[in-house]
């Protein structure tokens, strides 16, 4: 089974659920009365985003963007393109960008630059995982689920070659799987 491909489980299903619930409560307070536009970065954010918005108690709207895929984890191309744009205009809106993991920061830096040109009222970043050791751009998330070590993690939307996204926990993949 897929669990045999894990070197370790970093955060269990219960720990992930509890953390996302707490993030939702925080966002409920922070966005009270503002009708935020919650923007998911496909595909990695979809499971986190689904859980997150269901724990937010104030009205919101949803949209999605996609960025160019990362290729294999070890060799980042360094260039990121927006491949799917928002359906809605964001001028004057409070935008919350939701992503699975903030790693080198290239993806979110590119998306933030693009979206800021459209003059949102505010633009904040919410990530399930933060891997600060790998950062190459100056970017920090406003909301972070867990800070993780420099290891390749999967589950809760994060994949390896499109697999393991459905795992309900965050696991460290055995290096033998991706080497
Ligand atoms: P960035 O390096 O631009 O911050 O992150 C780009 C993308 O790399 C993330 O959205 C995610 O898809 C992928 N990524 C980075 N670190 C990991 C990791 O540890 N596991 C998985 N599955 N994907 C990762
Ligand atoms: Mg991704």
Task: Compose a concise summary of this entry.
With 179 residues, the chain is α/β, with parallel strands linked by helices. The protein has helices spanning 13-30, 46-54, 106-116, 175-178; strands spanning 6-11, 37-42, 61-67, 82-84, 94-102, 122-130, 143-147, 153-154, 170-173. Helix 3 links the parallel strand 5 (94-102) and strand 6 (122-130).
Overview of this protein structure:
The mean pLDDT is 94. The chain is globular. The protein has helices at residues 13-30, 46-54, 106-116, 175-178, and strands spanning 6-11, 37-42, 61-67, 82-84, 94-102, 122-130, 143-147, 153-154, 170-173. It is built from four helices and nine strands, in the order βαβαβββαββββα. Helix 2 links the parallel strand 2 (37-42) and strand 3 (61-67). Residues 44, 70, 73, 76, 99-107, 131, 152-154, 158-160 line the site of guanosine-5'-monophosphate.
Chart the SSEs and their pairings.
Layout: E1 6-11, H1 13-30, E2 37-42, H2 46-54, E3 61-67, E4 82-84, E5 94-102, H3 106-116, E6 122-130, E7 143-147, E8 153-154, E9 170-173, H4 175-178
Parallel strand pairs: 2-3, 2-5, 5-6, 6-7
Antiparallel strand pairs: 1-9, 3-4, 8-9
Helix pairs in contact: 1-2
Relevant terms:
179 residues; alpha/beta; six-stranded mixed β-sheet; three-stranded antiparallel β-sheet; 23% helix; globular; binds guanosine-5'-monophosphate; binds magnesium ion
């Amino acid at each position: 089974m897929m669990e045999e491909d894990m070197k370790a489980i970093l955060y269990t299903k219960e720990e992930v659920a509890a953390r996302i619930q707490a993030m939702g409560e925080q966002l409920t307070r922070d966005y009270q009365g503002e009708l935020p536009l919650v923007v998911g970065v496909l595909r990695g954010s979809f499971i986190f985003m689904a859980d997150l918005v269901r724990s937010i108690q104030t009205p919101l709207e949803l949209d999605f963007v996609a960025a160019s895929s990362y290729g294999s984890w070890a060799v980042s191309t360094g260039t990121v393109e927006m491949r799917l744009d928002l359906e809605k205009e964001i001028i004057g809106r409070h935008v919350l960008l939701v992503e699975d993991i903030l790693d080198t920061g290239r993806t979110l830096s590119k998306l933030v630059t693009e979206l800021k040109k459209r003059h949102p009222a505010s633009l904040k970043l919410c990530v399930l995982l933060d891997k600060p050791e790998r950062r190459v751009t100056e970017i920090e998330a406003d909301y972070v689920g867990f800070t993780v070590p420099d290891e390749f993690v999967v589950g809760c939307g994060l994949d390896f070659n499109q697999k393991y996204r459905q795992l309900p926990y965050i696991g460290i993949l055995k290096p033998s799987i991706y080497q």
